[in-house]
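agent: user wants the structure for TehB/YeaR-like domain-containing protein from Sorangium cellulosum. delegating to structure tool.
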Amino acid sequence: MLRPITGYHQDEANDWVAELSCGHGQHVRHKPPLVTRPWVLTPEGRASMLGTELDCVRCDRLEVPDGLVAYKRTPEFDESTIPDGLRKNHATRAGVWGMIHVLSGRLRYRIDGLDGRELLLDPETRGIVLPEVLHHVDPEGPVRFFVEFHRKGG
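agent: tool returned. relaying tokens verbatim.
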């Protein structure tokens, strides 16, 4: 999944890490001849690449970034009280991750913005909602669930 670069920091080995809009980091090393990224060596070069999209494989794997904190939670829904907005494509804002917690039953979770990936959620399987990615849910019979929203702490 392509995510724009929003900033940079150096890791413990002094290698540059691009900070992506999703909250993940990705190394952007200049190690010729295998990896050629001379732009990473200067502040001007790094600044010129802000907004450039990199493929975030951690988003593709539905990995939650470190350092997120819960800040809001929906009410509990069941198959008859699911808002129409959750049944059709919608997305969270930039930097906002969601965790779908099924308390009982099963919920079909489709991530349309991630090649239509479809997951069947139950009390043992939570759903990870990626920031700014279209998705929707449908009940598989009786179900009870809520959504918890997370963002970078600070």
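agent: one observation worth passing along. Residues 14 and 29 are 10 Å apart (CA to CA).
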